Structures are given as C-alpha cells and as structure tokens.
Amino acid sequence: MDFFQYQQDSLRAEDVPVSDIAAQYGTPTYIYSRATLERHWRAFDEAFSGMPHLVCYAVKANSNLAVLNVLARLGSGFDIVSGGELARVLAAGGKAERTVFSGVGKTTDEIEYALEQNIRCFNVESESELQRISEVASRLGKSAPISIRVNPDVDAQTHPYISTGLKENKFGIAIESAPDVYQAAAQLPGLNVVGVDCHIGSQLTTVAPFVDALHRVLALIDRLAELDIQIKHLDIGGGLGIRYKDETPPSPAEYAAAMRDVLTDRNLEIFLEPGRAIAGNAGILLTRVEYIKTTEAHRFAIIDAAMNDLLRPALYQSWMEIVPAKLRSDLVAEIYDVVGPVCETGDFLGKQRELKIAEGDLLAIRSAGAYGFTMSSNYNSRPRAAEVMVDGAELHLVRERESIASLYAGERVLQD
Ligand SMILES: Cc1ncc(COP(=O)(O)O)c(C=O)c1O
Ligand SMILES: N[C@@H](CCCC[NH3+])C(=O)O
C-alpha cells in the first residue's frame, strides 16, 4: 500500500498532483511520500512489538536526509555501510547509539569515526577486520561492541547479484567457523562481543529462507552459550521484498510472525535492517517523454530519465512499473520500449510496455524509492535528479537538481 494513487485520471503523490511537481521542479524528479515511509517503518516496528527490538533502516536504500529525518523522528535505528552514511544519519538527527555498522571493507578512519560517535555495534565480516577494530579501539582506549556476520549458506532465491548468504558470496564468516572466530574475538583487547548478525540477501519474496537462516543462527547462539559466550542481540538483517510486478512477498507482519514462531523463549534483543520494504514503494521517479521514435523493429518512448538516474533495469534487468501521470482516452495504446538518452543499449527503463502516451507526457516509474537515487550517477555528464517529499498537501524540495557546473567543480586542468 502506498500513497501514489489516481484521482479521476491524474496521478497524485498523497494530495499533490504529480503534474504540479513537474511544473514546479521539472523532470526527472524523485518524489517521496512521507506517509508511506512512516506507515512502512511502523509496520515493522509494530510487527515486533512485545519483544525487545530495534528497526535499523538500511540507509543505502535511500539516504536522503529528509527520509532519514522522518524515520529518526519515529525513533528508528539505522544500518550503515560507510562513514558517509554515518555522517548522513547524524546530520539527519539519527543516533549513533541506535546505528549498526555493516560492510566488508570498513577503513581505519571509518572505524575510528564510528567509535568516537559511540556506534551501537560493528557487524564484523572477517577475522582481519576483527583484528583491525581491536587495534583501533585499544589505541583510542575504547571498547568496540561487535557482532560477527555469519554466512548461513542458505539460498535466498533472489537475483544472484543481490544474494549474499551463500558460501560463494563475499559476505560474512562461514557459520561452521563462527565458534572459533567468536572465541578469538572474546580474547582480543578492545572488543565487547554482544551479538550475532546475519543478512542473506535482498528482495526475498518468501519467508522460508529467513526461517531457515534463523534456525541455523540460533543453533550457533546455543553453541556459543556452551562456550560461555553470551549473546545479547541477534541482528536478522534486511531483505524483505516488495511487489514490483506480480511478486507476492510476505507483509512485515507475516515475516515477523514467522520469525517470532522460531524465537519464542529466547532472551534476545532483535535488530532488523529493512531497506527496500520501507523506502521502495514510498518513492516514484517522475519523467517526461521527450520523443517517440518508431523503427522497423520497435516503437521507442525516449524519456528524460535514464540508467544514470535509475540503474536497476540496466543492472539487474529489473521490471519497474511505468504508468502515465494522466490517463488518456484520446489515444490508442501502443507497445513501447521506454528508454533514456544515455549512449548505451542497456539504457532502458522498461521494455514492451503498453501505454497511451504522446510526446511531452509525464510518466511515473513506480517503486523507485529504494536503490533509485542512491545508485544514480553522473554518467554522460547528466546532473542528478531533484528529490521532493510530499507530506499531505505540502511539497518540499529535499534535494536540488544538480547544476551542470557542479559536475566538474572539483576538476582541474593542467597549468602548462
Ligand atoms: C547488511 C545489509 N543489511 C540490510 C540490507 C537491506 O536490504 P533490503 O533493502 O533488501 O531490506 C542490505 C542490502 O541487501 C545489506 O547488505
Ligand atoms: N541495489 C539492489 C539491492 C542491493 C542490496 C544491497 N545489499 C537493488 O536495487 O535491488
């Protein structure tokens, strides 16, 4: 459920016609709905009510300060993967004490920064990283709270690029070697072993892989207790999928129910790291049809958004729903390949879409709130899109469209 619906024949973001947003801020523009973000965050929070838990929104999905701020006001925690993401969380009013630090390549500078800010926990992904955090914490006279991210070797049944819990993936430590690594961690100075972490992949559409992974991780926690290592929290990661086309992912409540069934009588605080399920359907990308071009093979709708604005179709061949901002009855439907202006054959947003459109019309690419703007680039020297947030009838510009001058502001030519 989201708040991008048609009223009569015009698409609205909450109470604002998206055509008004195009008139005010131009296109391409990302539009976020505050009500949808809040609703989705609360769905997770309420689904785990009655057991100690912390919803740590995965910042990589959408890191706009306004998005983070809306969630911080609800009391959200955050899952970060860089010093840059931590700086964003803090700038948006989030708390380091409610933030966990994931990722396979944390640098010394990032570890120092996170320790100075009193990060809630490092999700450690290798033995070398354990050593590094121990050294940095000891040097700073700090104790670093750590979890080890274990790789339970379960198949998340998702796109191979976003599956992370298999033995062949670069993430985490094999669950069989985890007891030894935990014992080593318990001996290292400057470390405080507090948790276990597990994230098996993204855009999962069934609960079975989550449940499977949970059983394996709980068995590890039992083994650790036998070794006198007491685990206080379990981070079950993110990964719950959303509907882009015809997927039927479990709701946060169904996901939580399945996890709760397995977690009964466990004295553990549960951390969650949902990204897509909170932000995905809270955003659309608004774009305009520049040209319609008919060749022998295809009819193309060439739009002013491209793979640099929204990479998912080009990178994963993802299907994103594309709808007109105004439903027209004066045109016949045609089949279009919806493509951007970037000089790559892979620059498409959707293929073989039936649409009633003409040049100049506005289109909305739905479910673009997660891994949309955050994965955008300046390829082909294209300024990145503006971002706006709608709150009822109010419209807020939350990131200006980039200027062309800003694209090369940090560059220098040789002096001779
Ligand atoms: C460690 C970690 N946590 C959380 C997430 C968020 O995943 P999702 O957006 O699928 O909920 C990811 C991305 O897959 C991740 O790598
Ligand atoms: N970027 C991916 C998800 C990757 C998840 C990051 N761990 C997507 O757009 O679907």
From TrEMBL:
Amino-acid biosynthesis in keyword set: yes
Pathway named in the protein's UniProt entry: Amino-acid biosynthesis; L-lysine biosynthesis via DAP pathway; L-lysine from DL-2,6-diaminopimelate: step 1/1
GO BP field: lysine biosynthetic process via diaminopimelate
GO MF annotation terms: diaminopimelate decarboxylase activity; pyridoxal phosphate binding
SUPFAM superfamilies (alphabetical): Alanine racemase C-terminal domain-like (SSF50621), PLP-binding barrel (SSF51419)
Modified residues (N6-(pyridoxal phosphate)lysine): 60
Keywords, ordered alphabetically: Amino-acid biosynthesis, Decarboxylase, Lyase, Lysine biosynthesis, Pyridoxal phosphate
Residue ranges occupied by any Orn/DAP/Arg decarboxylase 2 N-terminal domain in the UniProt entry: 35-279
Binding site for pyridoxal 5'-phosphate: 239, 273-276, 371
Domain of life: Bacteria
The reaction(s) this protein catalyses: meso-2,6-diaminopimelate + H(+) = L-lysine + CO2
EC number(s) given by UniProt: 4.1.1.20
List of catalytic residues: 343
Binding locations of substrate: 276, 312, 316, 344, 371
Listed cofactors: pyridoxal 5'-phosphate
Family in the record: Belongs to the Orn/Lys/Arg decarboxylase class-II family. LysA subfamily.
Physiological role: Specifically catalyzes the decarboxylation of meso-diaminopimelate (meso-DAP) to L-lysine.
This protein's name: Diaminopimelate decarboxylase
Annotated source species: Methylophaga lonarensis MPL
